Amino acid sequence: MSIRDKIALVSGASRGIGKAIAIALAKEGIHVAVNYISDTAGAEATCREVASFGVRSLAIKADVSDATAVLDMVREVQEKLGGIDILINNAGIVHKATLEELTVEDWDKVMNINLRSAFLLTQACIGHMRQESWGRIINISSVAAQTGGVTSPLYVASKAGMIGLTHSYASLLMKNGITSNAITPALIKTDMVTKDLKLDSAAKIPMGRFGTAEEVAEVAVMLVKNAYITGQTINVNGGWYFS
Fold first, then answer.
1. Is residue 176 included in any domain, yes or no?
2. How many whole angstroms separate alpha carbon 54 and alpha carbon 243?
C-alpha cells in the first residue's frame, strides 16, 4: 500500500528530530500535523517546509501531557486534514540534575511530557487506525533507556517506559495492521543536546561525531513504509550501544 496521502501527527515538531521527521514524511507525499507547545515561529517554519513538497500541513498548539488538549488536537487534525494514520511520539524534555536534587514535581513533569503523552496520543489515534486496518506508531526513545545516559533517572525512566509501551502496542495491535516501533537516538545535534544539555563533545560516540536529525528521520520513514517490522527498537547512536 502506498503511503502517499496518509496523514501524520508529529508531536514536538517545531525543532530538532520532530521537525526533521515531519519534513521527511512530507517528501514521501504524507500530509503532516505539526504539534508544538510554545515555539509558534518554529512550528510555522516547519509547516512551510512541509508544504513546499506539495502536501498539506497544520501547525497545532497543544500540551500533549493533557488528556483534554490531546483529544481536542486529534479532533482538529481529523477535521482539517483527516484521520491520523501515522503517529510520531516525539515530544519530550530533558531534566539534568543530581539524584539528591530531584523532586517529585520534577518526576511528574518529565513523566507527563515524555511518557504520558505517548499513551494519551496513541489512545486518541488508535480508533481510526483500527478502522482503516493500517497504522504506524513510532516512539522516539533514547539510548539513555539502554545505557543510563548522561542526564537523570527521570529522563532514563521515561524513555525506558516508551520502549515498554512500544512492545505492548505491537503485541496488541499487529493483528489490526498497525505496527509499533521505537527509535533510540544518541547525541543527535539538536538544541536539546547542544543547548539544553550543553554538550559540545561527541567523545562518547565511537563514530566520533554527533548524529543528525535527518539520520533519525530516515529511519522513521523506513518504519512507516515497512509493514513487517513491529515491536522493535532501532538504534541510531553512532555505535554507542549494540543490541
1. yes
2. 38
d(Cα 212, Cα 186) in Å, to the nearest integer? 10
Instruction: Classify residue 215: in a domain, yes or no.
Output: yes
Expressed as residue numbers, the domain containing 68 is 7-236
> From residue 206, how far is each of 52, 187, 191, 202, 237 by CA, in Å?
36, 11, 21, 8, 9
CA distance 119 to 134: 19
Residue 1 placed within a domain = no
Interval 5-37: pLDDT, tens = 999 999 999 999 999 999 999 999 999 999 999
CA distance 140 to 137: 10
Which of the residues 36, 155, 169, 228 is marked catalytic?
155
- Report how far residue 79's alpha carbon sits from residue 56's, in angstroms, rounded to the nearest whole number: 13
Asked about 36 being catalytic, the answer comes back as no
In 3D, which of 198, 136, 199 has the Cα closest to residue 166?
136
Q: Mean pLDDT for each consecutive 10-residue tract of the chain (243 residues)?
A: 94 97 98 98 98 98 98 98 98 87 95 98 98 98 91 92 98 98 93 66 86 97 98 97 92
CATH number at residue 46: 3.40.50.720
Question: Which of 175, 189, 182, 196 is closest to 238 using CA atoms?
Answer: 189
DSSP string, 156-210: HHHHHHHHHHHHHHHHHHGGGTEEEEEEEE-SBSSHIIIIIS-----TTSTTSS-
- In this predicted model, what pLDDT tens digit does every residue of 132-163 receive, in sequence order? 999 999 999 999 999 997 778 999 999 999 99
2 occurs within a structural domain: no
Amino acid identity at 6: K
Domain count, the chain: 1
